[in-house]
Specification:
Radius of gyration: 14 Å
Helix content: 25-40%
Strand content: 15-25%
CATH architecture: 3-Layer(aba) Sandwich
Strand order of the largest sheet: 2-1-3-4-5
Number of strands: 5
CATH class: Alpha Beta
Largest sheet: 5 strands, parallel
Structural class: alpha/beta
Number of domains: 1
Distance between the termini: 14 Å
Length: about 140
Amino acid sequence: MNVLVIHGPNLNMLGIREKSVYGEKSFEDINDLIIEEGNKLHINIEIYQSNIEGEIINKIHEAYGNKDAIVINPAAFTHYSYAIRDAIGSVNIPTIEVHLSNIHKREEFRTKSVTAPVCIGQISGFGYNSYLLALRSLKMTKNS
């Protein structure tokens, strides 16, 4: 199984920004944990991060025919990027949206996801474990 993990804007600043919201672990630490979980589950992981909407769209398009699934944390793009939503919908690859914080317990503008409706599921509020839970869910879905 080949999975693309996409981190959206500002996630490269994890461990530095708003630790009370996003946790103490650095971006590199979280990526290491994702790779480790992928190895345990026999999932090949490709990790990608961009602060630029178009680059994320291009990466989703590149996944077509090359990846079995996508795990994406669109970050702020979650709430307004119809372009990322359309990219996810266009490639027809099982995609799980993840968030470190519980977006439904935060500011009003963060409670709406325009990308979730084209995903097979959304996992939020479990810190870095949201990514690991997504990988486990994909593995279970693949095996069922």
